[in-house]
């Protein structure tokens, strides 16, 4: 296939404004899940956290693939002579963006003697927490959420070389292979009777989301008209939302019919289809945002608050579990002790959980803001020295 337009061979990597708003939505879903899950009525107890993470995976797949494919297109011939510089630029830029606050967080928690960090510091340092979770079939307390960052880093290990070596005509089949292979792998693990943790946190079982992101980048760069045709109507997004709802309903129904077994055990909806449905939802949400929503969604995604929170979303995600998590935070945690003192002075704060949620949110935003302006933003400026 040939590009739909000549200009598409030298695509612009301009900032896509509404994607910051999508980042805000994704991180908001995770925070809501981790802070309110056991307080919501059963009918509202949806897998919002996993949906938010999957949206991040699709978004990451799109952004990284777009950068890598466009960077490869700009290399002079013969391209193979420039492989070293191509990889060097990618990994330096990724390192500057991701490593500083990640390793600083681990260092601080290790010094503070945080038990799961002390116990698994080697796994965490190697971005292998997802492998630890899969191997031992257990979560990791305050560092649970770092499994998704491990998945992304592991994707970064092979994606640059893969896209450099792939001829353009093989990009779309590769994206489809990533999607289909990931779904089949999850299904195979379920049939084999392996713990659901493996299918949930392993990098290969998450590749349907990244594959859809790659497919979207390929369309955006080389087949812009097809991209517009696919994402301009709201049909795909509406259908994907309905599909996700049906899969969640199927998972609930399956679990209700087998109340004595684990929710995920042999539950094909939860074990296999949920991430695929969430990936398609993220696929159409992101595609629509790239073109630009109109009306209320435009106002939400381009609102200065959404834009700012999307900009600092990495910090929000990284730090939020250390502020509070409904599943593992002890009553002796400093954030909860401070809350009790505050509520003692202002008893009205204990009349609604909304006040406590706002308290956790302000703490997390405050910490992420300090991190952004003192660490992330200054270091990010160094990326300008390593342009594609």
Automatic annotation (TrEMBL):
It comes from the Bacteria. Keywords: Acyltransferase, Membrane, Transferase, Transmembrane, Transmembrane helix. The keyword Metal-binding does not apply. The keyword Transcription does not apply. The chain crosses the membrane at residues 43-69, 96-113, 170-189, 196-221, 233-251, 272-291, 353-375. GO terms for molecular function: acyltransferase activity. Residues 18-372 form the Acyltransferase domain. PANTHER family: ACETYLTRANSFERASE, ACYL_TRANSF_3 DOMAIN-CONTAINING PROTEIN. This is Acyltransferase. It comes from Fibrella forsythiae.
């Amino acid at each position: 296939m040939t590009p739909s337009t000549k200009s598409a061979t030298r695509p612009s990597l301009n900032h896509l404004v509404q994607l910051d708003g999508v980042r805000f939505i994704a991180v908001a879903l995770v925070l809501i899940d981790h802070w309110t899950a056991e307080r919501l009525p059963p009918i509202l107890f949806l897998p919002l956290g996993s949906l938010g993470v999957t949206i991040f995976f699709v978004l990451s797949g799109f952004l990284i693939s777009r950068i890598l494919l466009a960077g490869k297109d700009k290399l002079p011939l013969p391209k193979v002579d420039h492989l070293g510089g191509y990889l060097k630029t990618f990994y330096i830029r990724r390192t500057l963006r991701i490593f500083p606050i990640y390793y600083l967080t681990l260092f601080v928690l290790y010094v503070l003697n945080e038990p799961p960090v002390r116990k698994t510091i080697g796994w965490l340092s190697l971005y292998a927490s997802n492998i630890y979770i899969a191997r031992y079939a257990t979560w990791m307390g305050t560092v649970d959420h770092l499994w998704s960052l491990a998945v992304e880093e592991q994707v970064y290990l092979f994606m640059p070389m893969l896209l450099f070596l792939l001829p353009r005509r093989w990009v779309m089949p590769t994206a489809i292979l990533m999607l289909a292979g990931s779904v089949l792998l999850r299904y195979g693990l379920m049939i084999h009777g392996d713990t659901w943790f493996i299918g949930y946190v392993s990098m290969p079982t998450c590749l349907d989301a990244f594959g859809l992101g790659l497919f979207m980048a390929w369309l955006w760069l080389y087949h812009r008209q097809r991209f517009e045709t696919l994402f301009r109507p709201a049909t795909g997004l509406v259908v994907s939302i309905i599909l996700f709802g049906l899969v969640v309903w199927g998972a609930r129904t399956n679990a209700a019919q087998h109340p004595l077994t684990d929710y995920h055990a042999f539950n094909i909806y939860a074990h296999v289809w949920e991430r695929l449905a969430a990936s398609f939802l993220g696929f159409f949400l992101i595609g629509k945002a790239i073109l630009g929503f109109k009306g209320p969604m435009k106002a939400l995604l381009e609102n200065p608050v959404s834009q700012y929170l999307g900009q600092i979303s990495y910090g929000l995600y990284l730090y939020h579990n250390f502020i509070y998590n409904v599943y593992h935070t002890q009553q002796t945690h400093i954030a909860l002790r401070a809350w009790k003192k505050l509520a003692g002075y202002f008893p009205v704060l204990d009349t609604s959980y909304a006040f406590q949620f706002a308290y956790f949110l302000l703490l997390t935003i405050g910490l992420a803001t300090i991190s952004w302006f003192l660490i992330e933003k200054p270091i990010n400026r160094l990326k300008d020295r390593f342009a594609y």
